[in-house]
Amino acid sequence: MKWSIHGNGKTITEGEVVAPDERLHWPQTISIGVQHILAMFGASILVPTLTGFPVTTTLLFTGVATIIFLLMTKNKVPSYLGSSFALIAPVTASTVGDDFSAALGGIVMTGAALFIVGLIVAKTGTRWIHALMPPVVMGTIVALIGLNLASATLAPMRDFPATTFLTVLAVVLSTVAFKGLLGRLSILVGLVIGYLIALVQGQVDFTPVGQAAWLGLPAFHTPSFDFNVALMFLPAVFVLIAENIGHVRTVGLMTGKDLSKFNGRALMADGIGTVVAGVGGGSATTTYAENIGVMAASRVYSTAAYWVAAIAAMALAFLPKFGALINTVPVGVIGGLGIVLYGMIGIVGARLWIEAKVDFGNPINLMTAGTGLIIAIAVTQDLVFGQFQMGGIALGTIATLVVFHLMATVAKLRGTDLTQVDA
């Protein structure tokens, strides 16, 4: 909990960065902390908005999870744990009306599984993860999550086409029209512009805002547990693993420090944060690329700024009127943001293939990706197998893992493996 002052505490020397164990003077540190709140804000409030979870409760647990993360990584890995998009599909599928206790149970089980993986990684390293999920598998799992969610945007496109597509236009244009922090906040900018467009069309109801109190506790809910639900949430564990390990590696590269020894701690911390969120009624948490953008632009990697962001986010959770305002975001705006975000999730999977130079001339890779994607896209409602129910994401993930490892094993045994799929 101690940080040394970087330089004169006010400016950063050219070519240097403020390390995680350093900080600027508190006014500058608080300013950076506010930027981190803004960076994670648009995406983090969108997750509960899409799933129907209480916004203020989710915000509270993002702050709690961030503090857990900072403590467990010994204040050496700067990160804000915002709401994870990887769990939107299973949360939506396991929510019935206003009852999302089963979804919370799935979130708790996801966090517990992630914590166990973190324990193993802390002891053995990450080589087994790369063996289980080579780039073709990991890219497919990420892509199929985004593509499976595509059907959720159909109703807004049909019922509120102007609001939906103008929101999409606002997001994509603000991404390239603005520079610096504002450009990285294109989701938040698009939300505001889309909200104004819906307001002009009379699609916003402020009645709940007027009825809400200024100060009050966020709404807490308790989980219930179902094995069928656990199967739906399983694929998200793989995504959270990749996000956390990728975050630690990226921050290490940007600060010039080897942080790989914190991989296990990062996974365990996110696992605990997700369990705590699920127990209380919040969304699952994960590291955020948006906050990496703020660090890259400001050259400030101080964990002190993340303490500021976490505490401020938790304070917002005790403003019911603020939560009620967020809940007035119209369906058309949510649909427009969903089109962009779900599409980005899908393309991130393809980017993993490209960066790893996955060879789709190899039929093992080609069939692995093709099989998983088609199943995930086709299955929009749960299929029943005896006593079990599984959705498209769970089935697609299982198919991806089975097809790859089955084909790779048989190819090696038969000597037909001509393209070194292990690489």
UniProtKB/TrEMBL annotation:
Task: List the keywords (alphabetical).
Answer: Membrane, Transmembrane, Transmembrane helix, Transport
Q: Where does it live in the cell?
A: Membrane
Q: What residue stretch is flagged as signal peptide?
A: none
Task: Say yes or no: keyword Signal present.
Answer: no
Please give the start and end residues of each transmembrane region. Answer: 53-72, 79-96, 102-122, 134-154, 160-178, 185-204, 224-246, 267-288, 300-319, 331-354, 366-385, 392-411
Q: Which domain of life is it from?
A: Bacteria
Keyword Nucleotidyltransferase found: no
The way it spans or sits in the membrane comes to: Multi-pass membrane protein
Q: Which family does it belong to?
A: Belongs to the nucleobase:cation symporter-2 (NCS2) (TC 2.A.40) family.
Q: Which PANTHER family match?
A: PURINE PERMEASE C1399.01C-RELATED
Name of this chain's protein: Uracil-xanthine permease family protein
What organism is the protein native to? Glutamicibacter bergerei
